[in-house]
């Protein structure tokens, strides 16, 4: 019984030793394209004396690399590897500038012992290039897709992180089969942050990050918000300027009030500015309808806005080109009411809808984490331009008024001179008549 146990233990030891030798004789290496690889013929603790060594490359066929005899002068390197290898006296082989075609098995046979030949399985891979991270959308409520692309190299694994940490478990994310695509369903404000994609292979890894900023509104609504802010400033400035002008007009004396030709151009300016504001708000309304849909209230609003555009444009053109034809439209009371209320009604429509759009668009914008539209610059620029136009009109009016007053004074002065000349002529005529009739009176007396 003891003899049998001893034989079994001895067998196990022999098998274990053979397995170790087999493991030592097998090696797997993975390297990148263009690198150099040192292939060893013996384990580091093996003291075997090398009398002869042969290196072979095994793929679909067997190719000789080098033959070396200790008694010989130098190793025999075969032609295909003459410029590609360095052979060392300890049997090691340095393979330089390896390519993917060099993948395969390299076998070192020492002293013609095929059984204990050392084999190294070499895998040459192209290093993966820098990853490219792309986003298809950033609008709140939409499905966002983050794509991690590697153009060069074979990727073994892809790992996603958010803000440098693993993806939060309280949020539902979807992945493609190879994890190259990350889907975020119904994006919300909490999804804002830095997403990174780590792609790795057996020889290297690459990581790229991108900041995901959720937009509460589409680009078209951003344009609508900017237009509404500018138009609101223009309309407010116009209303304030017109109100101030009306107060000044009421406080002026009858001689200084705007009349005739001077009243024509301020009316052209006011109606033209209202027309431009209405056109801009019509554009903003189209942007809003494109994203949020059409409603009955919007249809009515756009109808009245079209009416304001047509009437204010008509008044501006007629007054600027042929003001005498404006009297044709004032023959009926209804036409007079339409012409008189167009500018005021247009300002009210523009201001009300501009406030409506600004409030609703800003409310939608709060659903994302993008910075709000800074309206200060647009407000200051629009107000400056509107005030500049009003100032130019004011200066023009006063110069026109001054020139007209000067012309009137010159006309009055000419009339006075003419009347004085006429009076002097009349005073000279009776004197000559008296002198002419004095002699007859003397003769009659005589």
Question: How do you describe this structure in short?
Answer:
The protein has 446 residues and is an alpha+beta fold. The protein is 49% helix and 20% strand. Helix 2 packs antiparallel against helix 3, helix 2 runs parallel beside helix 6 and helix 3 packs antiparallel against helix 6.
In DSSP terms (H or I, runs of 4 or more residues), the helix count works out at 6
What is the succession of H and E elements?
HEEEEEEEEEEEEEEEEEHHHHH
- Describe the global form: elongated
- Nearest-integer average pLDDT: 78
Structure explained in plain terms:
The protein has 446 residues and is of the alpha+beta class. It folds into 3 domains: 27-125, Immunoglobulin-like (Sandwich); 132-212, Immunoglobulin-like, CATH 2.60.40.10; 219-409, no CATH class. It has 6 helices and 17 strands. The chain has helices at 2-25, 219-251, 261-292, 296-321, 333-365, 375-445, and strands at residues 26-32, 37-39, 52-58, 62-69, 76-77, 85-87, 93-95, 104-110, 118-125, 132-135, 144-149, 157-162, 165-166, 174-175, 181-184, 193-200, 205-212. A 6-stranded mixed sheet has the order 1-9-8-3-4-5. A hairpin with an 8-residue loop joins strand 10 and strand 11. Helix 2 packs across helix 5 (333-365), helix 3 (261-292) packs antiparallel against helix 4 (296-321) and helix 4 crosses helix 5 (333-365). The protein is elongated. The model is unreliable at 14-24 and 430-446 (pLDDT under 50).
Helices and strands, with pairings:
Blueprint: H1 2-25, E1 26-32, E2 37-39, E3 52-58, E4 62-69, E5 76-77, E6 85-87, E7 93-95, E8 104-110, E9 118-125, E10 132-135, E11 144-149, E12 157-162, E13 165-166, E14 174-175, E15 181-184, E16 193-200, E17 205-212, H2 219-251, H3 261-292, H4 296-321, H5 333-365, H6 375-445
Parallel strand pairs: 1-9
Antiparallel strand pairs: 2-7, 3-4, 3-8, 4-5, 6-7, 8-9, 10-11, 11-15, 12-13, 12-16, 14-15, 16-17
Helix pairs in contact: 2-3, 2-5, 2-6, 3-4, 3-5, 3-6, 4-5
